[in-house]
Amino acid sequence: MSHLVETDIKRHCCNPEASIREVLERMNGLAPHVFMVVCDDQGVIQGTVTDGDIRRGILAGNTIDNPISACMFTDFKTVPFGGKIPKRRLRAFEFLPLVDESHRLKALAIWQEGAGNEIRHCMIMAGGYGKRLAPLTATVPKPLVKLGDRPILSHILDGLEAANIAHAYLSVHYLSEQFEQFASQWQGDIDLELIHEREKLGTAGALGLLPKVPDAPILVINGDVLTDTNYQALKDFHDAHGYDATIGVTVHDTEIPFGIIRQQEDGTLDNIEEKPVLTHFVAAGIYYLAPEILEMVPEKQSIDMPDLLNQAAAAGKKIGLFPIHEYWRDIGRPADLQAAGIDIQR
Questions:
Q1: Rounded Cα–Cα distance for residues 56 and 70 (Å)
Q2: Is 275 tagged catalytic?
Q3: Quick one: pLDDT band at residue 334, thresholds 50, 70, 90?
Q4: Which of 73, 240, 312, 345 could link 317 by a cystine bridge, Cβ 3.0 to 4.6 Å?
Q5: pTM of the model
Q6: The one catalytic residue among 131, 146, 275, 318
Q7: DSSP string of 284-324?
Q8: What does DSSP say about strands 245-255 and 319-323: parallel, antiparallel, or unpaired?
């Protein structure tokens, strides 16, 4: 492991008034060193921003149209330009701004992590009946329904390969022979290994069929989710917070088609809010689970993911929420499939 000193600082700099949306678009081109330094017009540092800072900002109620200053990290550390770089601190923060005597950014020291930071285990839940997508699923399991000219599952595997995931378990039950045929013909880089649910075990029970409890966390994704989620960022977020489990969440708005009445204690009208929109975080069908969570899955017994996570939380496990600001769509109904087909053409 080592570090580099980057003097081309413009690509990592943004203005405090830049929108979160604009910063995200720029950060997408910075892999593997995905961060920004927020500087004023004189180049003086105001804060720093990582993918995790933005997701925490969204959890706090910000939208991607808010200025980046709303979620920047202000307790940042700097190092005098030309001075000795403290490697232990650099490894902890992953990057350190190098500044002149006026606290203006001159260069960046960036930690370069070696191999070993990849997602090592993955499972795709593909055993469901897909009843909401009927009649398309009468003869084809939902993950193998065509989206464009390829099965939904192929699109999911593309995203996993982009995260350098080398192997994935595929949990199957309904029309499982079609998955066997798919796996035998699959020519992608990711290695597929089928796990057969002889009886339906709920949305999490297949985790109890793994050959052994993995020695590292496992990424779990539903077989009907189309997304550009940055899985490596999910892992880094999970690791940085020391979570036992992390749930990928996305924003869902519900419009109430009526005027909502609020009353005072004496029963008289306080106010009426016409057709309000209620915003909630919802589970996105993407999870990152530590081995300790997997040990809570009963062997060959049915259990749904919400029940598993509720039990883990009740047992004192630390469960985190990872806001997904990237593209995400659940393909549950025919209208979702049609919309996803339009999305992939863009």
A1: 11
A2: yes
A3: very high
A4: 312
A5: 0.78
A6: 275
A7: EEEEEE-HHHHTTSPTT----HHHHHHHHHHTT--EEEEE-
A8: parallel
